[in-house]
């Protein structure tokens, strides 16, 4: 079987299916190739305000109207109740010191709200349903879809690329002018082209173990967290992070009653827990953290435990003459802070623009090279941040302050884009911002080597000064004691930081469905 296409996208997860849909909308002949079949379970399930905004921008620009409801909790549940997702009102961080510790007190909590109410909240993506939905939408648009295909070879010349493999015991040959790899870290092109790996500086060697569970209790119903006043959102309706020396645990709840949970750990902790043993390792982990043991008392794993022996990855090459890796295939740092989705969606946005603006031009190769450079630079910026957080799992005040560099950059970027000023935030984490980017890199280097309370206090103060020019969300306010709600006044008072006035901010809030007259709950 031989076929020829303009674009071949390898991998039908959300990124590959979205890329295929966009290419099809641009009038190109597209084939989407999948090694397995849907539904399937994939790690990485938590969206953010920026990732939802990027998805919304792509859906609007490329007339993918069926995707627009997926950008908010309320519209998702109204339009696609059969596609499971979870309510995400923000980021919850709970720090655990010793195995004898009781409920998590206010001083070991960090709550950062992402929305003022449920209807416009973010979502956890239950990838088994979400990926299957996007793959079916790609087929509905006319994308040729071939699953259960085992790709073996890749060859290229001046006319394009040729990939061969087998499907259902039949030999297959696919010719395409351009190949997009969406198969994830160490995926198809990385293997067949024997691409080298580069180091991710500052990232410790880490492993992961995860599964999906039924019967997981809410922590706010177990007495596992002390709430001394009304929190900015229900603490479980979030991407919940339990952090401790050597690693962290994520807990994401879905409306179906399923909960995604797992641990990312340094090699030393992973070896101590013997993560390769799966369920037994998970049970050992719960014994160390009484709060979690109570939460998972009646829980049952509904999927096999999956062990990832090495998480961090960075490809030495991201583009070639006739191919490109999406950011999700070019590198991966860690699930912490849910950075993977916005990185991938920014990459899709840039690659889609290249296909739209430069497909038939002599500028294609140059634009493709620029895409590769930006993808790698953003991966490195993410690694600097995550590596510093790992270095401070046992120093929660510094850990909390370092996260504010992320939240300040993310909220500023989202607001700038919603105001129609994307040039103010052209890079992830504002890493190439002339002031913020360089100062952020320097303070992260310092924060990896904090050894006493005095140095910690000085560092926290410096981080407050660094984020101030882009702080539009009231972050670092001591009066809020690590609980940060979404408050319209914070944005209104920061209008000048975005070159806007209060009226422009009010208009943006109204367009976003922000009910300023209601409680920020």
Structural summary, described in words:
This protein is of the alpha/beta class and about 525 residues long. It folds into three domains: about 1-80 and about 125-200 and about 315-365, 3-Layer(bba) Sandwich (FAD/NAD(P)-binding domain), CATH 3.50.50; about 85-125 and about 205-310, 2-Layer Sandwich (D-Amino Acid Oxidase, Chain A, domain 2); about 395-510, no CATH class. It is about 35% helix and about 20% strand. It contains 16 helices and 20 strands. The strands form four sheets. Strands 4, 5, 11, 12, 13, 14, 15, 16 and 20 form a nine-stranded mixed β-sheet that branches. Strands 1, 2, 7, 8, 9, 10 and 18 form a seven-stranded mixed β-sheet that branches. The protein has a two-stranded antiparallel ribbon with strand order 3-6. A hairpin with a 4-residue loop joins β13 (about 245-255) and β14. α1 (about 15-25) packs parallel to α10, α10 (about 340-360) runs antiparallel to α11 (about 365-390) and α13 runs antiparallel to α14.
List the helices and strands and how they pair.
Blueprint: E1 2-10, H1 14-25, E2 30-33, H2 49-61, H3 73-79, E3 85-88, E4 90-95, E5 109-113, E6 122-125, H4 127-140, E7 144-146, E8 149-157, E9 160-167, E10 170-181, H5 188-192, E11 206-214, E12 239-244, E13 247-253, E14 258-266, H6 267-273, H7 279-288, H8 290-295, E15 300-301, E16 306-308, E17 313-314, E18 323-325, H9 327-330, E19 331-332, H10 340-358, H11 364-391, H12 396-418, H13 436-447, H14 453-467, E20 483-484, H15 488-493, H16 502-511
Parallel strand pairs: 1-2, 1-10, 2-7, 4-12, 5-20, 10-18
Antiparallel strand pairs: 3-6, 4-5, 8-9, 9-10, 11-14, 11-15, 11-16, 12-13, 13-14, 17-19
Helix pairs in contact: 1-4, 1-10, 2-10, 10-11, 11-12, 11-13, 12-14, 13-14
